[in-house]
Design brief:
about 200 residues, mainly alpha
């Protein structure tokens, strides 16, 4: 917009109309300019980049709760129209805030590797009852009702690490006392020959 309006106009009705028309022209141009100005997505884009790091991390790095919250907020960010006018900045800011909140609440998942190893061994006893004494299978089932029932999606905190350690110890103590049944295969074969 060029300012071709003389600054020394005499106060007449016609000159005032010229000034008012020029003013309205500037205001109309500003309105058009504002309508073409786009919302700022820079913070949202930064948050989406951080979210992608969590979503692409190896499984088990973050708790399932974290991944789910970040995924939901990220999906909302992806679905957001990326050509909103500046007048819709609040919508962009709202989606950005939700994603940033999910990122701020992220929890690393506690290490379950030793627990999982012991859990699988106890589960194997339950799954193969003929290989173990009845008492061993019974104790294995009882241990699985307690130690086997811990939350498998705990965040990596000192308290949760202790909970996992205690459950792992309970499983391992059960395994130390596990008794396999004796192998009667050869006896059964010999007995069958005698019977026949």
């Amino acid at each position: 917009i060029e300012n071709n309006l003389p600054k020394d106009l005499v106060a007449t009705e016609e000159n005032q109309k010229t000034i008012d028309d020029a003013t309205q022209g500037i205001l109309d141009a500003l309105t058009e300019l504002e309508a073409t100005k786009r919302a700022d997505y820079s913070e949202l884009n930064d948050a989406m980049t951080e979210a992608e790091k969590i979503l692409n991390a190896p499984e088990g790095t973050y708790t399932d709760k974290t991944v789910e919250a970040v995924q939901n907020a990220y999906n909302n960010a992806v679905a957001l129209d990326k050509n909103l006018p500046a007048s819709e900045q609040a919508q962009v800011d709202s989606v950005t805030s939700a994603l940033e909140a999910a990122l701020a609440d992220k929890d690393f998942k506690a290490d379950y590797s030793e627990y999982n190893e012991a859990y699988d061994k106890v589960q194997n006893i339950i799954d193969n009852p003929g290989k173990y004494t009845e008492e061993t299978v019974k104790v294995a089932e009882q241990v699985m009702d307690t130690a086997g029932a811990i939350d498998k999606d705990l965040a990596d905190t000192a308290e949760n690490r202790q909970t996992i350690k205690d459950a792992t110890d309970e499983l391992n103590n059960m395994l130390k006392d596990a008794e396999e049944t004796a192998d009667y295969t050869k006896f059964d074969e010999a007995y069958k020959q005698v019977k026949d």
